[in-house]
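Summary of Year 1 activities. Much of the first year was spent building the evaluation harness for sequence design. The harness presents a backbone, in tokenized form, and records the residue chosen at every position. We chose the following record to illustrate the format because it has been used consistently in internal testing since the harness was completed.
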């Protein structure tokens, strides 16, 4: 793939910083609301630690491109531009939620944003990504699908079937593995014969997009931009961003105390910190702008929580709508 390095402008970097702070703040509040039982459900999977991967990768897309992911989806939804208010309302199962309160944390989607969810079955969204990419190819569109998946998801059958089909049909899809080194509590070396997942590209005869630093939003943006443009013209790319999840698998899971040292080291390379340091080193007097962003994001999340708390629950009619398609006779 041709690598054209474009120096990222200050405005873009500030906006990515803002998005990452928004994701962190939004999810910290979700964690609290879950403990208060205002967000319910068996699981709540936080994206904390992965922010640079989601923000940098989604920034590489056109509006007409598509995004799909698994259950660790709130951060990617925010990066795709979904308003925090209907997103928070969705978390609480409210009628004003982005999916009418029927999706919740793991199954939120927004057609308007070409953000297709949100799936709980590990790897289950990969065939859907291939299907969306097939529609684009079949109808001679230029749209690309960015499919996020965990390294754990690269070990089941969905992965093999979908990546193979993307190869034989030259589908415009970027398979972006967020390798956070653990699937639930299982280290990648224990579950995966080739722990550098991107190297599997050769087995499918597709482009290897390499392994990138998932903590650095600029590096992610540049590498994923190359991959997206390659996919648009030629076909699939498999690549991998190395990152780390700060919390347990879900908020009810323990945070694996045996990983304390590893966790500390990753916090030292926190994606928000990395972006902050880059901004400060590159632009004079940017600290006051960063403070303003931090404060504005807190207000935005407060307003989202207030909106969600004051929103109504779905009615019975809401709950049974969009379940079955009505035929012409009603
Ligand atoms: C088909 C299937 N098998 C098992 C599970 C249980 N499960 C949920 S998440 C998970 C680990 C997946 O790890 P990975 O794909 O690396 O994503 P991460 O949670 O690290 O983001 C497992 C085994 C499931 N939801 N679906």
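For this record, the design step produced the sequence shown next.
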């Amino acid at each position: 793939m041709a690598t054209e390095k474009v120096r990222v402008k200050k405005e873009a970097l500030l906006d990515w910083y803002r998005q990452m702070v928004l994701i962190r703040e939004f999810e910290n509040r979700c964690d609290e609301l879950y403990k208060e039982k205002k967000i319910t459900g068996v699981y709540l999977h936080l994206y904390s630690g992965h922010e640079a991967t989601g923000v940098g990768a989604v920034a590489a897309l056109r509006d007409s491109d598509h995004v799909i992911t698994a259950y660790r989806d709130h951060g990617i939804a925010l990066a795709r531009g979904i308003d925090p208010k209907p997103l928070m309302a969705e978390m609480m199962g409210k009628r004003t939620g982005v999916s009418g309160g029927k999706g919740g944390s793991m199954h939120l989607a927004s057609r308007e944003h070409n953000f297709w969810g949100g799936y709980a079955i590990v790897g289950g969204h990969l065939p859907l990504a291939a299907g969306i990419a097939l529609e684009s190819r079949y109808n001679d569109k230029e749209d690309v699908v960015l499919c996020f998946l965990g390294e754990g998801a690269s070990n089941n059958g969905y992965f093999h079937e979908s990546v193979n089909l993307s190869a034989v049909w030259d589908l415009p899809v970027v398979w972006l593995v967020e390798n956070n080194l653990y699937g639930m509590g299982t280290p990648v070396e224990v579950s995966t014969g080739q722990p550098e997942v991107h190297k599997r590209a050769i087995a499918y005869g597709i482009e290897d997009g390499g392994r990138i630093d998932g903590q650095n939003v600029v590096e992610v943006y540049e590498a994923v931009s190359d991959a997206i443009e390659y996919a648009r013209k030629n076909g699939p790319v498999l690549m991998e961003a190395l990152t780390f999840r700060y919390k347990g698998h879900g908020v009810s899971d323990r945070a694996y105390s045996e990983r304390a040292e590893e966790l500390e080291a990753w916090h030292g390379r926190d994606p928000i910190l990395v972006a902050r340091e880059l901004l400060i080193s590159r632009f004079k007097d940017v600290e006051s702008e960063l403070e303003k962003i931090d404060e504005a994001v807190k207000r935005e999340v407060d307003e989202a929580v207030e909106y969600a708390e004051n929103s109504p629950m779905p009615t019975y009619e809401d709950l049974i709508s969009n379940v079955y398609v009505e035929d012409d006779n009603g």
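The mean pLDDT is 95. Quantitative recovery figures across the full test set are reported in Table 2.
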